[in-house]
């Protein structure tokens, strides 16, 4: 199963990742092989089977709506920010 | 020295925590250059923690079971104030702003952290060759891989560079390296251990678990880290189960010629591993009834995993964009900044899985791949359930082959993936599994880790 180059380019855009030229070539081959392997799933009769959502039975529970300590490490988060100018956190303009 | 032995020695004042930590730090200095097990060693913190432990013992306190135990922590588990890079460049400068639930528990229990260990980037790989910081070598044979993705943690324990360690397991990442390095590794039941503070890979499959020298040590560590945590809504308290083990099941598909491991072109089960398992079966038969069982759908487990896992990966990895933390690569506009930061900061295997996940979740492909895989996953889980109506514990191999050579499989992703063929089913079904140093793997029903320890100890001591 092969994946077209245009499709790979579209996926790269969707996933917001870059690949080098050689990497892209190999990628088409690797993805094709992996998806080809996944084709086996088509052999399985899954009529009347539900999609699994959790491997362990869980029930939804709610905790009491009580006030408690929030983030105390806001400065850590600001410190982790890659780009800063004076007292501002810097990002590219969106518009 | 085991956790159990250290505890006795501390209690009887035969040894100090400081002496023990220093002996490990010396071993790390001697070996880490060659093996590349630790990405960072917390020498000063470890010595300081050891001093505190010694002072508390000197003041008359009775030491707890984990006091002074020098541990290695996988680099995807957060320790407040320390870098947690998941062996990726994009998180190379990321300092954890809080403790993972397991780390908080271990700190309170008096354990000491020696350092953070190497791994496949974001836990994606089976050999620790996918680390952005170079491969880890197998301490038992340096030309071979230690397995992965928790290769650093397993190698640390096997090489005497830590008394025990924490790893994480999404498709075999604790058990396969444990088998490759000849140590004990446990993947707990999904939900038995909180994932709060674990850098997520595939959230419906990830579990943190111990790597140790003995089954008893793994049990001690597991008991220290398990339990419900409000910060992980999928975590659960272990229900008390009856400990009655009579029958051990052997899945015939795992061993037959052309069976699971040969399915889809993988290596068939190595004769030496087959022999080891045969010997264990013989030993077990002295105490338990051995019964052949059938798990016909497990041959689809790997295909199922390689749809579900990348789907979850692609969504979990979206947060690494170089905007709020991590490394940012500047470009003309926002979209290009994302692409460049992720392109240069994230390694090839991780990007490959992001793309694969994006593909299987795309409109038009979702039903054919993701929905179908989740249905097959349901069948695999059901199969385990019915098997456990017949037997109490299942015995299987962990990996189809002994450790392979560094570089041997790195250019062929599918071949690399096939080395996890025996470990993936437990993640898909959420059941606990224990790997022994011999490479044997025991699987039990949800929340019945106790059975694994019991049978594991029987195999260990006879």
Automatic annotation (TrEMBL), chain A:
SUPFAM superfamilies membership: Glu-tRNAGln amidotransferase C subunit
Coiled coil: none
Keyword Ubl conjugation: no
InterPro entries for the chain: Asp/Glu-ADT_sf_sub_c (IPR036113), GatC (IPR003837)
Catalytic activity: L-glutamyl-tRNA(Gln) + L-glutamine + ATP + H2O = L-glutaminyl-tRNA(Gln) + L-glutamate + ADP + phosphate + H(+); L-aspartyl-tRNA(Asn) + L-glutamine + ATP + H2O = L-asparaginyl-tRNA(Asn) + L-glutamate + ADP + phosphate + 2 H(+)
This enzyme's EC code(s): 6.3.5.-
Superkingdom assignment: Bacteria
Keywords from the named record: ATP-binding, Ligase, Nucleotide-binding, Protein biosynthesis
Pfam assignment, any one: GatC
Gene Ontology biological process: glutaminyl-tRNAGln biosynthesis via transamidation; regulation of translational fidelity; translation
GO molecular function, one term: glutaminyl-tRNA synthase (glutamine-hydrolyzing) activity
Keyword Ribosomal protein recorded: no
Database matches in PANTHER family: GLUTAMYL-TRNA(GLN) AMIDOTRANSFERASE SUBUNIT C, MITOCHONDRIAL
Function text: Allows the formation of correctly charged Asn-tRNA(Asn) or Gln-tRNA(Gln) through the transamidation of misacylated Asp-tRNA(Asn) or Glu-tRNA(Gln) in organisms which lack either or both of asparaginyl-tRNA or glutaminyl-tRNA synthetases. The reaction takes place in the presence of glutamine and ATP through an activated phospho-Asp-tRNA(Asn) or phospho-Glu-tRNA(Gln).
Family: Belongs to the GatC family.
Assembly and oligomerization: Heterotrimer of A, B and C subunits.
Descriptive protein name: Aspartyl/glutamyl-tRNA(Asn/Gln) amidotransferase subunit C
Lineage: Bacteria, Candidatus Giovannoniibacteriota
């Amino acid at each position: 199963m092969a994946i077209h180059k245009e499709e790979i380019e579209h996926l790269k855009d969707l996933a917001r990742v870059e690949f080098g030229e050689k990497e892209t070539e190999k990628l088409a081959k690797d993805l094709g092989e992996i998806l080809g392997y996944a084709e086996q799933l088509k052999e399985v009769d899954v009529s009347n089977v539900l999609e699994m959502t959790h491997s362990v039975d869980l029930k939804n529970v709610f905790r009491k709506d009580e006030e408690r300590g929030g983030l105390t490490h806001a400065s850590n988060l600001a410190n982790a920010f890659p780009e800063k100018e004076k007292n501002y956190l810097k990002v590219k303009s969106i518009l | 020295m085991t956790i159990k032995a250290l505890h006795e020695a501390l209690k009887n004042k035969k040894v100090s925590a400081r002496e023990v930590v220093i002996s490990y730090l010396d071993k790390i200095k001697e070996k880490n250059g060659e093996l590349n097990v630790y990405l960072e060693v917390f020498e000063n913190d470890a010595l300081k923690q050891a001093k505190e432990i010694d002072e508390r013992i000197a003041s008359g306190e009775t030491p707890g079971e984990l006091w002074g135990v020098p541990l290695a922590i996988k680099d995807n588990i957060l320790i407040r104030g320390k870098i947690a890079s998941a062996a990726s460049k994009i998180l190379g400068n990321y300092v954890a702003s809080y403790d993972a639930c397991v780390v908080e528990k271990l700190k309170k229990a008096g354990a000491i952290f020696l350092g953070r260990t190497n791994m496949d980037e974001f836990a994606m790989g089976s050999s620790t060759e996918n680390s952005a910081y170079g491969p880890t070598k197998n301490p038992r044979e340096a030309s071979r891989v230690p397995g992965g993705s928790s290769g650093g943690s397993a190698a640390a324990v096997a090489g005497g560079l830590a008394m025990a360690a924490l790893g994480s397991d999404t498709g075999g990442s604790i058990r396969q390296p444990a088998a490759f390095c000849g140590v004990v590794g446990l993947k707990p039941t999904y939900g038995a251990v909180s994932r709060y503070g674990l850098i997520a890979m595939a959230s419906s499959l990830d579990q943190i678990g111990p790597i140790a020298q003995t089954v008893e040590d793994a049990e001690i560590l597991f008991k220290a880290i398990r339990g419900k945590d409000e910060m992980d809504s999928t975590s659960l308290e272990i229900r008390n189960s009856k400990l009655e083990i009579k029958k051990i099941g052997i899945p015939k598909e795992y061993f037959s010629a052309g069976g699971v491991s040969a399915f889809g072109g993988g290596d068939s089960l190595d004769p030496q591993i087959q022999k080891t398992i045969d010997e264990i079966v013989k030993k077990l038969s002295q105490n338990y009834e051995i019964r052949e069982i059938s798990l016909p759908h497990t041959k689809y487990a790997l295909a199922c995993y390689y749809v579900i896992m990348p789907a979850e990966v692609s969504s979990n990895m979206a947060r690494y964009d170089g905007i709020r933390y991590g490394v940012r690569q500047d470009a003309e506009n926002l979209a290009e900044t994302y692409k460049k930061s992720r392109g240069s900061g994230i390694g090839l295997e991780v990007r490959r899985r992001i793309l694969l996940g994006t593909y299987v979740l795309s409109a038009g492909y979702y039903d054919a791949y993701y929905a179908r895989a989740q249905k097959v996953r349901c069948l695999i889980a059901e199969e385990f359930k019915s098997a456990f109506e017949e037997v109490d514990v299942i015995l299987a191999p962990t990996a189809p082959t002994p450790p392979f050579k560094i570089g041997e499989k790195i250019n062929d992703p599918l071949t690399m993936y096939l080395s996890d063929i025996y470990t993936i089913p437990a993640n898909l079904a959420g059941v606990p599994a224990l790997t022994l140093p011999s490479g044997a793997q025991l699987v039990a029903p949800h929340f019945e880790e106790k059975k694994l320890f019991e049978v594991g100890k029987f195999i260990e001591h006879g």
